[in-house]
C-alpha cells in the first residue's frame, strides 16, 4: 500500500518510540497537527495497511446537572427539610409547619417522599423518625456525593454506584457522559519500517489541464486512491415532509378533476367574515382570535359589495332570510387582517365566476390567535375546496370527501351533523385511526345568504380541512410542533410520502 503524507508523518513520529502506546494528545503534539481528524484518518490508513493497531476504551463521566448545581449551593431538598425537622418543635413538624417555614408546595411533597424512603413517617399528621442517626448518615453521604461532583466531574467507576443510580433517577441532578478514548501502537511490521523511506513528498490529488500541459507532474507523486475503500453513503436530498404531503394532496385532487386556486394572505374582514354570513358580533372576529393589521389597517372593498353584505346581514336581502338584525358596520368590514381560513379564496372565486361551473381546491396558510401546544399552531395550512354546479348536493359532497380520504390511505370515513355559520346542512368528516374516530374538517352546502349575493343561485358544496392534523395521522406524530422543528435527523427518518 502506498502511503500518503499524513500516514508517513504519523508513522515516522511513532517510529521514534516504536514500543510506545500513543494517545491522542501525544500524537497531536509530536506531529504538529491541531486537528484530531488528521490522526483519525492517518491512523485508519496505517491500520488498514497492517502497520499499527487501534485500541478503544469507553469511560463514563458523571457531572452535576442544573438541579445538582443548585443543590450544591443551597443543599439537597431532603437535607434542607431534615435540618428544619431537627430545629422545629415536635408539634410543628407537620405539612403546615413545613409551608410556614417557607418551603413551596412543589418542594414539600417530593422532599417528604425522599425522607419517607429513608425512614421518616407520618403519625397523626406529624413527621417522626425512630432512627435519626441512619437518616443523618444517608443525607451526609448524598451531600458529600454532590459536593465532590461540584469540584469536578468524576469517573463513574470511582463513585458509589448506588448513589449514581439514585441521583440518576432524579431529574437534572446529575449528567452522565460516555467518552471513547483511543490509543495507537505499532505492529511488528510497522516497527520494522525504515523511517528514511517516509519523507513527505509533493503529492498530486487531482489532475487538471494545466498540470498535464506542464512538466511538474513528472517529479511529483500521485496521491493513492483506493477504489475498494469503504465510503460514506451521502444522504440524498428530499422534500420536507409537509411539502411532500402538500404535493401528494395536490395530485389527488388533480386526479379527481379539480383545479387549483390561490389567494392573498391579507384580506378585508368583509371578504374573510361578512361574505360568509358570520355576524359582526361573532367571537371569532375579536382580536383574541384574529390577527388584525396595523399596516394596512384597512383594505378597500367595492361599495356594491358592502351594500350587499349590509342588506344580507341586516334583513336577509332577498334570500328569504331575516339576517342578523342590527346595523352593519362598513368600517368593520374593511379592516385589514391575515386570513383565518382559505374559504375566502373560494368565495372570491365564485364572485368572479358566478355562472361558471367549477370544481376547485386550494392549499394555503392561515393565521389565528391560537395558543401553541401539541395540537394547535398560530400559523397552519388549510385544505379548501368547492363544487359549484347546478346539480351539486350533499351526497356528492360526501362521496367526494370519502374518495379523497380513501386515496390518502383512510378508507373508513364517516360524517356527522354539525353547525357552521355559513353552511346548511353542515357535516364534520371523521376517519378511523388507531381504533378511534378523529375529526379532520368541516363541510356542507353554502347558505343562500353566502352565495346569492355573489350572483349565483347554484348550490355550492364546500369543505375545509386542517393539513397539519392530517399530517399527524400520515406521519404518525403525537405533537404537531414536530413538523416544524429544525431537527434534520428526525425529519429524515419520517416516512417518504
Keywords for this entry:
Arc Repressor Mutant, subunit A, 17 strands, seven-stranded mixed sheet, four-stranded antiparallel sheet, 3 domains, 497 residues, 37% helix, flat, BirA Bifunctional Protein, domain 2, alpha+beta
Kindly describe this structure.
It is a single chain. A hairpin with a 2-residue loop joins strand 15 and strand 16. This protein folds into 3 domains: 98 residues, Winged helix-like DNA-binding domain superfamily/Winged helix DNA-binding domain (Arc Repressor Mutant, subunit A, Orthogonal Bundle), CATH 1.10.10; 107 residues; 176 residues, BirA Bifunctional Protein, domain 2 (2-Layer Sandwich). A 7-stranded mixed β-sheet has the order 9-12-13-17-16-15-14, sandwiched between helices. It has a 4-stranded antiparallel β-sheet with strand order 1-6-2-5. Strands 3-4 form a two-stranded antiparallel sheet. The chain is built from 20 helices and 17 strands. It is α+β, with helices and mostly antiparallel strands and 497 residues long. 37% of the residues lie in helices and 22% in strands. Helix 4 crosses helix 8, helix 5 crosses helix 7 and helix 12 packs across helix 19.
Might you state the CATH topology name of the largest domain?
A: BirA Bifunctional Protein, domain 2
Helix proportion range: 25-40%
Mean of all residue-level pLDDT scores: 88
Number of discrete helical segments: 20
Distance between the termini: 46 Å
Total beta strands: 17
Provide the CATH superfamily of the largest domain.
Answer: Bira Bifunctional Protein, Domain 2
Low-confidence stretches: none
Strand content: 15-25%
Structural class: alpha+beta
Strands across the major sheet, in which order?
A: 9-12-13-17-16-15-14
CATH class of the largest domain: Alpha Beta
CATH architectural label of the largest domain: 2-Layer Sandwich
Please summarize the sheet with the most strands: 7 strands, mixed
How many discrete domains?
A: 3
Radius of gyration: 36 Å
Quick one: overall form?
A: flat
Amino acid at each position: 500500500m502506498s502511503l500518503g503524507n499524513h500516514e508517513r508523518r504519523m508513522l515516522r513520529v511513532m517510529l521514534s518510540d516504536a514500543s510506545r502506546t500513543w494517545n491522542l494528545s501525544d500524537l497531536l503534539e509530536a506531529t504538529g497537527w491541531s486537528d484530531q481528524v488528521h490522526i483519525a484518518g492517518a491512523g485508519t490508513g496505517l491500520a488498514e495497511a497492517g502497520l499499527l493497531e487501534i485500541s478503544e476504551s469507553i469511560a463514563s463521566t458523571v457531572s452535576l446537572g442544573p438541579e445538582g448545581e443548585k443543590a450544591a449551593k443551597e443543599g439537597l431538598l431532603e437535607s434542607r427539610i431534615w435540618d428544619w425537622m431537627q430545629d422545629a418543635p415536635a408539634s410543628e413538624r407537620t405539612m403546615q409547619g413545613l409551608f410556614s417555614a417557607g418551603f413551596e408546595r412543589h418542594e414539600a411533597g417530593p422532599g417528604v417522599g425522599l425522607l419517607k424512603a429513608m425512614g421518616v413517617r407520618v403519625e397523626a399528621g406529624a413527621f417522626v423518625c425512630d432512627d435519626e442517626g441512619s437518616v443523618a448518615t444517608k443525607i451526609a453521604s448524598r451531600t458529600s456525593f454532590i459536593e465532590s461532583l461540584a469540584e469536578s466531574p468524576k469517573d463513574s467507576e470511582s463513585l458509589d454506584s448506588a448513589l449514581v443510580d439514585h441521583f440518576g433517577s432524579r431529574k437534572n441532578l446529575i449528567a452522565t457522559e460516555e467518552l471513547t478514548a483511543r490509543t495507537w501502537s505499532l505492529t511488528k511490521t510497522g516497527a520494522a519500517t525504515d523511517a528514511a523511506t517516509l519523507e513527505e513528498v509533493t503529492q498530486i490529488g487531482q489532475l487538471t489541464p494545466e498540470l498535464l500541459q506542464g512538466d511538474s507532474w513528472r517529479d511529483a507523486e500521485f496521491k493513492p486512491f483506493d477504489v475498494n475503500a469503504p465510503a460514506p453513503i451521502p444522504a440524498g436530498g428530499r422534500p420536507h415532509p409537509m411539502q411532500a404531503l402538500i404535493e401528494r394532496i395536490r395530485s389527488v385532487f388533480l386526479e379527481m378533476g379539480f383545479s387549483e386556486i390561490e389567494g392573498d394572505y391579507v384580506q378585508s374582514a368583509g371578504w374573510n367574515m361578512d361574505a360568509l354570513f358570520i355576524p359582526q358580533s361573532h367571537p371569532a372576529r375579536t382580536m383574541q382570535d384574529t390577527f388584525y393589521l396595523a399596516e394596512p389597517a384597512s383594505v378597500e372593498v367595492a361599495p356594491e359589495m358592502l351594500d350587499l353584505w349590509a342588506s344580507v346581514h341586516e334583513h336577509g336581502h332577498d334570500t328569504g332570510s331575516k339576517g342578523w338584525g342590527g346595523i352593519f358596520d362598513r368600517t368593520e368590514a374593511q379592516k385589514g387582517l391575515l386570513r383565518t381560513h382559505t374559504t375566502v379564496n373560494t368565495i372570491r372565486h365564485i364572485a368572479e365566476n358566478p355562472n361558471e361551473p367549477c370544481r376547485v381546491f386550494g392549499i394555503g396558510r392561515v393565521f389565528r390567535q391560537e395558543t401553541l401546544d401539541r395540537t394547535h399552531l398560530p400559523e397552519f395550512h388549510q385544505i379548501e375546496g368547492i363544487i359549484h354546479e347546478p346539480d351539486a348536493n350533499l351526497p356528492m359532497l360526501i362521496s367526494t370527501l370519502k374518495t379523497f380520504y380513501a386515496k390518502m390511505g383512510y378508507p373508513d370515513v364517516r360524517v356527522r351533523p354539525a353547525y357552521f355559520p355559513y353552511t346548511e346542512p353542515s357535516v364534520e368528516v371523521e376517519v378511523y385511526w388507531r381504533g378511534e374516530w378523529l375529526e379532520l374538517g368541516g363541510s356542507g352546502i353554502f347558505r343562500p345568504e353566502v352565495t346569492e349575493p355573489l350572483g349565483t343561485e347554484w348550490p355550492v358544496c364546500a369543505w375545509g380541512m386542517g393539513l397539519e392534523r392530517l399530517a399527524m395521522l400520515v406521519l404518525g406524530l403525537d405533537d404537531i410542533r414536530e413538523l416544524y422543528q429544525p431537527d434534520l435527523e428526525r425529519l429524515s427518518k419520517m416516512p417518504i410520502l
